[in-house]
Write a structure and sequence with these properties.
By secondary structure, this protein is mostly helical. The protein has 6 helices and 2 strands; from the N terminus they run ααααββαα. The chain has a single domain (4-167), classed as dinb family like domain (Four Helix Bundle (Hemerythrin (Met), subunit A)). The mean pLDDT is 93.
Length: 176
């Protein structure tokens, strides 16, 4: 049986793989479809994806035991598929480092979350809860993106956990 930290590493690798599929799908869509307000949790397809990346950045920065290097790019520039790709590469590099350095014992360490945007009160959140929250956040917004893509008659880039597990050798077929 995999340890909890091994499970987190696998989940975050799977989610990174899935995010790349959405970026590839977005790259094939007309810009007007990417930025059109669809009345969802965030207005456009790009806004939803950007929100998910922002959540990853916020929480992983809190989990990290190192300072993130400054992110390059103009934060006031309009969001594009290319800017999301750049953000994805940056955030994923930080996630990879955090996951490599994180230990099972550190999962109980807490991160302070101050009251404000997204939180009604101050609290200390265990890293394990932060990481499971990020898995939930990604799955929630992936489902939302899928539904919006289907409304455009665009196939969503769905790859199940099991299919991904077979592709990366995590799940083995039984020997003959």
């Amino acid at each position: 049986m995999a340890s909890e930290i091994e499970s987190f590493r696998a989940w975050f690798a799977y989610l990174a793989h899935s995010r790349r599929g959405y970026l590839e799908t977005f790259a094939r869509l007309p810009p007007a479809e990417l930025t059109r307000d669809r009345g969802a949790s965030f207005p456009s397809l790009l806004d939803i994806f950007e929100h998910s990346q922002g959540a990853l950045y916020f929480w992983i920065k809190g989990v990290a035991r190192f300072e993130f290097p400054p992110q390059e790019g103009d934060p006031t520039a309009p969001t594009t598929v290319e800017s999301l790709r750049n953000d994805e590469a940056y955030v994923q590099a930080q996630i990879t480092r955090v996951m490599a350095e994180l230990t099972e014992a550190e999962l109980a360490r807490t991160i302070f979350r101050q009251a404000g945007k997204g939180s009604s009160h101050d609290c200390h959140i265990p890293i394990r809860d932060v990481l499971w929250h990020l898995v939930e956040e990604e799955l929630q917004h992936r489902g939302e993106l899928n539904a919006l893509l289907w409304q455009l008659d665009v196939p969503a880039p769905i790859e199940s956990w099991i299919d991904w597990g077979h592709a990366v050798g995590r799940i083995q077929d039984p020997s003959p």
